[in-house]
Amino acid sequence: MAGGKIFIFDTTLRDGEQSPGASMNMQEKFRLAQQFVKLNIDIIEAGFPVASKGDFDCVKNIADHICDIQVAGLARCNEKDIDTAWQALKNGDNSRIHIFLATSDIHMKYKLKMDREQVLELAVASVRHAAKYTSNVEFSAEDASRSDLDFVCEVFEAVIRAGATTLNFPDTTGYAMPDEFGDSIAYLNRHIPSIDKAVLSVHCHNDLGLATANSLAAVKAGARQVECTVNGIGERAGNTAMEEVVMALRTRADLLKATTDVVTEHITATSRMVSTITGMLVQPNKAVVGANAFAHESGIHQDGVLKERTTYEIMNPCDVGLNQNSLVLGKHSGRHALYDKIAVMGYKLNADELERVFNRFKTVADVKKEMFDEDLEAILMDEVLRIPNIYELLSLGAMSGSKTLPTSSVRMRVNDKEMTGCAIGVGPIDATFRAIAKLTKTGSKLLYFAVSSITGGTDAQGEVMVRIEDNSVVVLGKGADPDIVTAAAKAYLNGLNRLEYLKKK
Ligand SMILES: [Zn+2]
C-alpha cells in the first residue's frame, strides 16, 4: 500500500561525510545530531563504527546522549562489524544496526567473489547475529537496482524471517530511472510473502540527477522509508536531498498521499549548518535551500508575487524557515540573556565554554550593531565545536593599501609557547598565511580559499573557509570575525589544528 507516514532516515553523518573533504569532528556531528532531533527526523545514521576509532566514538557519543531519535550504525556482514556497531549503539533508546551486503551479479562476482547461495546464507546469518542484540535491524542489498529482482526478493524474505525489520533497496550507483525504480518497489511488494512484517526503504544516489525523482517514484509504489542527506551531500554526485523529498511530499500531498513528521521550518537553518560544518557550499539555484530558491528576478514574477504569492510560488518561504532572521542580542545584552539564547538554540555548555562565548560575543557586538542567530551560531561553532588546539592566534597586525607593501605580523601560541613572526605577501591575507606557515613550519598546501559574509551589511562578520592538504589528507578550516584578515588567519589555523588532530588519530 502506497502512502501514509514516510520515515525519514538521514545519513548526512555517514554517507554525507563520504563526500571528498567533508569530514566532521565529534562535536560537529553531535551538534548536527541535536539539530536532527529539532527537525524531527525519524532515524539518523551516525556512522560506521568499525571504520575507525573516531567513527566509533562519534556514534557512541550520539547514541549515549541524544534521545527521541533512532540512531543507526552501519556494519558489513561479519560478526566483528556487527559486534562493534552494537558496542557503540547499545546505550541508545532505540538503536538500529544497519547491515549491508551486495546482491548484484557484478558485485558478487568481482567484489565479494561469492555466489548467490553464499550471499543468501551470509545475509541471513548476519541478520540473525544482529537480531540477538536488537529487534531494530535494517538490511541493505547493496547495488539492489542492478540486481536480479527475484534474487533480491528471495534474500529479503529470508532476512525478514531472520529478524530484519527494515529492508533497504539502494540505487548505489545512481543508475535507475524513476519508472523502472518505482516498478521494482511494486514488484518487491508483490513478491515478498512476509513484506508486511518490515518497512521497505530506498536509498538513491544522484549520478544522473534523479535521486529525488527515484525516491518519490518509490514512495508512490509503496516504499515507506527514504534515506537522504541534507543538501544532498554524499559520495560522488551525492545522495537524495532530504529537503527536496520532504518538501515534495508536503507540496504534492494531493498526488503522493504521504507525509513526513519533519518540522520543515528548521530546514533552512539545518542546510546552513551542514554547509558551514562540511564546507560544501550550496549552489544558488539548488531546490528548496539555494540562495535563489525563492528569489524572483523578473518584473512580471515580482509583480505577480506581490499581488498574490501563489501566482509564482508553490511553497511558502516561511515553511522552510526562510526570512526568520531574528534579532537576538546587542552589545548591551548581559550574560543571562546570552545564556538563555544559547540554551534555546540547543547547546549545553560548561562554565568555561560559556565564558569564552560571552567574551567573544562582547568583542563582536562591539563592532557589529545587530547580532542575529547566524552570528551567534558562528561564534559557537568557532569557540565550542573545536578540537584541542595546538596552534592558537593571540593577535595579528596586518598592513595593506594601494601603495603599501602588504605585511603581517602574527603572535600565536604553538604548543603552549608564544611566538611572533612576520612576513610580506601579495596582499594582507597572503602575508598573514606566510607568517603562520613560518611559525608552524607546516608543509601543507592551500587548495581552496573562500570568503563570505554571515549576514548582510558591511559590518557583517566575515566567514572564511579554507581547504588544505598535507600528505594527501585534506581538511577544512573555518573562522569567523568582523575583521576579514583575522577570520582568514583563524580559518587557516583551524585547518592546521585539524591536520594535527588527524595525524594523531
Ligand atoms: Zn549511499
Question: Could you explain how this protein is built, in words?
Answer:
This protein is an alpha/beta fold and 505 residues long. Helix content is 41%, strand content 21%. The chain has 17 helices and 18 strands. An 8-stranded parallel β-barrel has the order 2-3-4-5-6-7-8-9, surrounded by 8 helices. A 3-stranded antiparallel beta sheet has the order 13-14-15. Helix 5 (116-131) runs parallel beside helix 6, helix 14 packs across helix 15 (373-383) and helix 16 (428-440) runs parallel beside helix 17 (484-504). It is globular. The model has no long low-confidence stretch (mean pLDDT 91). The protein binds zinc ion. Residues 15, 203, 205, 235, 239 line the site of zinc ion (ZN).
List the helices and strands and how they pair.
Elements: E1 4-5, E2 7-10, H1 26-39, E3 43-47, H2 53-65, E4 70-76, H3 79-89, E5 96-102, H4 105-112, H5 116-131, E6 137-142, H6 149-162, E7 166-171, H7 178-191, E8 199-204, H8 211-220, E9 225-228, H9 242-251, H10 253-256, E10 258-259, H11 267-278, H12 299-307, E11 327-329, H13 335-344, H14 351-367, E12 371-372, H15 373-383, E13 391-399, E14 407-414, E15 417-424, H16 428-440, E16 445-453, E17 462-470, E18 473-481, H17 484-504
Parallel strand pairs: 1-10, 2-3, 2-9, 3-4, 4-5, 5-6, 6-7, 7-8, 8-9
Antiparallel strand pairs: 11-12, 13-14, 14-15, 16-17, 17-18
Bound molecules: zinc ion (ZN).
